[in-house]
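Students often ask why we bother encoding 3D structure as a string. The short answer is that it lets us treat folding as translation between two languages. Here is a chain of 186 residues written in the first language.
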Amino acid sequence: MAITVKQLLRRHGAFVSGVTGIFIVVVLVAQGMVQSGAVYLNIIAIAPTDVYILTFGYALVQAIPFGIGFFLSLWLVAPIAEELRVGHVITRAILATGIASTLVFIVMAVIAVVDSFSAGGAIFGNSFPVPGFDGSGAGQGILGALSGGIITFVMQLPLGVLAGILLWIWRRDHPPKRPLEGIIDL
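And here it is in the second language, the structure alphabet:
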């Protein structure tokens, strides 16, 4: 049975999955701030804004894409319903973490490829830059993005499983009015 985009967007459970995704982003950003603050403890006394700038970059490149991927997975691919058993909940949470980490990899790979474009001036130095593509950094950037995606999966797996179990507990106490089903349930 083919699913249309209209049918996907009419699926129920988006609000609770969205709140879970926002929860993930908030926890990841807070975790990033604490980690950056701990690593750059001596910089905080000199320039406290550096920690906020580092956390903002982390949020844009990793935390927000991870939260969006987690939300989309719990809403469209593998929603966590109240009638599932713990093993299924953990499996779906691992799947959501994998999809979210894949989205982080895609964002990091796109940034790496875009970063490979350069503006170099040949005639008058850098007075008149000529856009070009130096592909030498793209491959290394994509490998770095793959490594970042794998590290994100491994590091955020406990948080993803915890969020999935908490969502399942909440759904058992507050069952939805309509049954939830995702792409893997069809």
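Translate back mentally: The first strand starts at residue 117 and ends at 120. Keep this in mind for the problem set.
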